[in-house]
Amino acid sequence: IDIFKYVIYGVAAAFFVYGILLMVEGFFTTGAIKDLYGDFKITTCGRCVSAWFIMLTYIFMLAWLGVTAFTSLPVYMYFNLWTICRNATIVDGANLCLDLRQYGIVTVGEEKKVCTSSESFIKMCDSNELNMTFHLFIVALAGAGAAVIAMVHYLMVLSANWAYVKDACRMQKYEDIKSKEEQELHDIHSTRSKERLNAYT
């Protein structure tokens, strides 16, 4: 449990740092888009950094999707236990059982049932740890789901931002080429006008 606790602390700290990096990158990219229609020139490094963050966020989103699926199993299991405990207090003398094989915790060959007739089950139902653990698993599931939703939202925003930067870069190149061609046409026109004026005089 101590190792698992330190792993959770490490993951939380790493994602805090990663969130700050994403926020800083978002500020720089948004400022770049605002300035791109002026004298700003987007660099290849900026586009590479955005593409790298898109790929990294996508991998982290898949990992958190797995964490969400993993934390949903204990919530389902504890909900069934909580329901059995509640029903056991309502219906006197009922022997309700929970088969652990349906959760994949034990193999199909082993028969591991937890029944309300046992004294340990009654103690477990009366203890505060069951409710506390159930609520903590719900909070963990909600947190993992919120992380997945945040990463999906950030992926949409970052992908749109990257597409805007790419299109604006192409537009900037087009505007540069167009202004050069107009300048060349203007130079040719002014040269011909001077030649005609010289020939006329």
TrEMBL record:
Q: What is this protein called?
A: Neuronal membrane glycoprotein M6-a
Topological category with respect to the lipid bilayer? Multi-pass membrane protein
Show the InterPro entries listed in the entry. Answer: Myelin_PLP, Myelin_PLP_CS
Q: Which gene encodes it?
A: Gpm6a
Q: Which organism is it from?
A: Bucco capensis
Q: Which Pfam families match?
A: Myelin_PLP (PF01275)
Q: Which residues cross the membrane?
A: 6-28, 49-73, 136-164
Q: How does it assemble?
A: Interacts with OPRM1. Interacts with palmitoyltransferase ZDHHC17/HIP14; the interaction leads to palmitoylation of GPM6A.
Family recorded in the similarity comment: Belongs to the myelin proteolipid protein family.
Q: Which PROSITE patterns match?
A: MYELIN_PLP_2
